[in-house]
Amino acid sequence: MFLQLPDGERVLAVEHYFVVHTDAESISRDGWTAQESEVMADHRWWGREELSSTTETVYPEGLIDMLDEAGVFGP
Known about the structure:
This protein has three helices and two strands. It is of the alpha+beta class and 75 residues long. A two-stranded antiparallel ribbon has the order 1-2. The termini are far apart.
């Protein structure tokens, strides 16, 4: 996938996704690089229904399908 960075540079992105289960509810930006802080607007935990109904832009496109195929939300 090609992405355009804030400075206009186009880069080829090879993305890997991981499912991680945790009991923690808080999410930290500790350890983020300056570039990560610049390009990521927000992050939080989502449930399937929230993802299905949001009008916000969520990446990657097709995330719900990917999570369903991985069995993240149950059988």
